[in-house]
Design a protein that fits this description.
This protein has 112 residues and is of the alpha+beta class. It is built from three helices and three strands. The protein is elongated, with a radius of gyration of 24 Å.
Length: 112
């Protein structure tokens, strides 16, 4: 686990790592207040990328990286759901056969 010195290199390699295997990639942030250090780690259990900083200006960069990962995760989920529902029949997804809709009963009587 070697720390990557360049922020741009860390972001590029992190995004590549996530795109290669989105199911097993993790993104961890750790802030040590006593040291004033922020450590970002992206791993897929085979490769580990780390970036360490003590600069306050890097917080904005970290926020942008969070947004990148959020959009990548949302796209993966959206593509998965579209793929799943496109190839699966609705009855297989719900586990129930399609039910007929019954018309509502008219009247003011008590329900029994």
């Amino acid at each position: 686990m070697v720390y990557i010195e360049s922020w741009d290199e860390f972001v590029d390699r992190s995004v590549q790592l996530f795109r290669a295997d989105p199911d097993s990639t993790r993104y961890v942030m750790k802030y040590r207040h006593c040291d004033g250090k922020l450590v970002l780690k992206v791993t897929d259990n085979r490769e580990c990328l780390k970036f360490k900083t003590d600069q306050a200006q890097d917080a904005k960069k970290m926020e942008k990286l969070n947004n990148i990962f959020f959009t990548l995760m949302a796209r993966v989920q959206k593509v998965f759901h579209l793929f799943y529902f496109y190839y699966m029949d609705i009855s297989e997804v719900t586990g129930k056969e399609a039910m007929e809709v019954q018309p509502a009963k008219k009247g003011r009587g008590r329900k029994q």
